[in-house]
Amino acid sequence: MPSRLELPEPVLEAIAAEDLEGLRTALEGSALAKELGIAYETLEPGRARARLPAGELLPNFLGFVHTGALFSLAEQVMAAAANTLGFVGLPLNCEIHFVKGADPSQDTVASAHVVDTQGRIARIVVEVTQGHDDILRVTEMVFLRSPHP
């Protein structure tokens, strides 16, 4: 894992320039996002929406989508939303509520939006759904906003 001093310059430049296509490329190009097949449907200032496709890698030992995969999807959209406003967003805290087991044979969608920015802090809310069913809610994720880590 890169240290703070080794963050990829193209990613830092995309964040600083609010280059959403450059940021989308970086987000979807991360190894875990590629392995899970996470793809962005929406990426705009302060908002992101991504889809986790159904797949064989997703079931846990009980047959539901592994909660780690669900959180990975939620974290991806939170990071996307946090990093669309010209600052590098580094996660500080998160509160998650798992509402219902997710079906691995269905696509899962996560939507995130920035609800507040105060100085160096950004607060983001995320909803994860399958169809009309709530699967997971992140009531708040706090990100430290930094112009350059």
Secondary structure topology:
Elements (H helix, E strand, L loop, with lengths): L8 H8 L3 H10 L1 H6 L2 E6 L2 E6 L14 H16 L5 E11 L9 E11 L2 E10 L2 E14 L3
Antiparallel strand pairs: 1-2, 2-4, 3-6, 4-5, 5-6
Please report the number of helical segments.
4
The SS-based structural class is alpha+beta
How large, in whole angstroms, is the Cα Rg? 15 Å
Q: CATH fold name, please?
A: Thiol Ester Dehydrase, Chain A
| Main sheet characteristics | 6 strands, antiparallel
Total domain units: 1
What is the H level of CATH, i.e. the homologous superfamily?
A: Hotdog Thioesterase
Q: Please give the CATH architecture.
A: Roll
Mean pLDDT figure = 90
Question: Span between N and C termini?
Answer: 15 Å
Question: Shape from CA axes?
Answer: globular
Could you write a compact summary of the structure shown?
The protein contains 4 helices and 6 strands; from the N terminus they run αααββαββββ.
Structural summary, described in words:
With 149 residues, this protein is an alpha+beta fold. The chain has one domain (4-146): Hotdog Thioesterase (Thiol Ester Dehydrase, Chain A, Roll), CATH 3.10.129. The protein contains four helices and six strands; from the N terminus they run H-H-H-E-E-H-E-E-E-E. The protein has helices spanning 9-16, 20-29, 31-36, 67-82; strands spanning 39-44, 47-52, 88-98, 108-118, 121-130, 133-146. A six-stranded antiparallel β-sheet has the order 1-2-4-5-6-3. Helix 1 (9-16) packs antiparallel against helix 2 (20-29). It is globular, with a radius of gyration of 15 Å. The two termini are 15 Å apart.
